Amino acid sequence: MIVNQNLDSSITSAARWYVLQSKPRQEQRALENLCNQGFECLLPMYTRERLRRGRREPVEEPLFPRYLFIRLDQISSNWYALRSTYGVTNIVRFGDIPASLPDAVVEQFTRIQPADRHLFQTGETVHIASGPFVGLDGVFDRDDGEQRVFILLDLMSKQQCLSLPVGDIRAY
Fold first, then answer.
1. What is the pLDDT of residues 146-168, one digit of tens each?
2. Better pLDDT: 8 or 100
3. How far apart are CA 164 and CA 113, in angstroms?
4. How far is Cα 155 from Cα 141, in angstroms, rounded to an integer?
5. Which of 64, 47, 65, 66 is nearest to 56 (CA)?
6. Residue 126 exposed, middle or buried by CB count within 10 Å (0-12, 13-18, 19+)
7. DSSP letters along 80-102, please?
8. Is 104 in the same domain as 131?
9. CA-to-CA dists, residue 105 to 15, 25, 113, angstroms
10. Is residue 118 part of a domain?
11. Residue 60 and residue 4 in contact, taking contact as beta carbons nearer than 8 Å
12. Nearest Cα to 62, choosing from 18, 122, 90, 20?
């Protein structure tokens, strides 16, 4: 999901997208405070599944932790208000020049559809691309939190359940 607040439609074509750094885990707070001040902001979000208290729950997280995008005009925008906005640490700069992004890049973030929380579907055939079982094919069973998956392999005339790192398997 992408949060896009377009509160100020009178921004001229000279406005550009800039990158802001937020305080740790305060992206939403910074976004809310900036939007309340009338700025056009973008905080790309995605949904993923996390293990909490032994249960899997979908959680929305920022695509770029601690960063959000703001559309500002060099002439008419109040840049000084950014320094005192709750949740905002600073404007990302290269030397003395604020880091800006082309409009086309930011538009790509608005077109991103929320990704499916699962990389593989249960019962899907997968190929093991690295690790001790490289070259074997198995059946995806389930994932184990964020880093590991369970694969069913036919070994020794019996189906075995193996836990492998997510990066070791590929879709067949």
1. 678 889 998 888 889 999 888 88
2. 100
3. 28
4. 16
5. 47
6. buried
7. HHHHTSTTEEEE-EETTEEPEE-
8. no
9. 15, 24, 15
10. no
11. no
12. 20
- Whether 12 and 89 map to the same domain: the answer is yes
120 vs 101: CA distance, rounded Å: 33
Q: Please check whether residue 67 lies inside any domain of the structure.
A: yes
Place of tokens 């002439």: 75
Q: Which residue has the tokens 């949740």?
A: 87
Tokens 């929305």 belong to 60
Mean pLDDT lowest for which of 51-55, 70-74, 160-164? 51-55
pLDDT of residue 114: 53
pLDDT tens digits for range 125-138: 999 988 888 999 99
Query: How far is 115 from 82, CA to CA, in rounded Å?
Result: 31
pLDDT in tens, 41-52: 999 988 777 767
Query: Is residue 153 within 8 Å of residue 133, measured between CB atoms?
Result: yes
Query: What is the pLDDT at residue 3?
Result: 53
CATH number at residue 63: 3.30.70.940
What is the domain extent for residue 106? 2-111
Together in a domain, 9 and 65 = yes
Total domains in the fold of the chain: 2
| Distance of alpha carbon 52 from alpha carbon 2, whole angstroms | 24
Q: How many CB atoms are located within 10 Å of the residue 154 CB?
A: 12
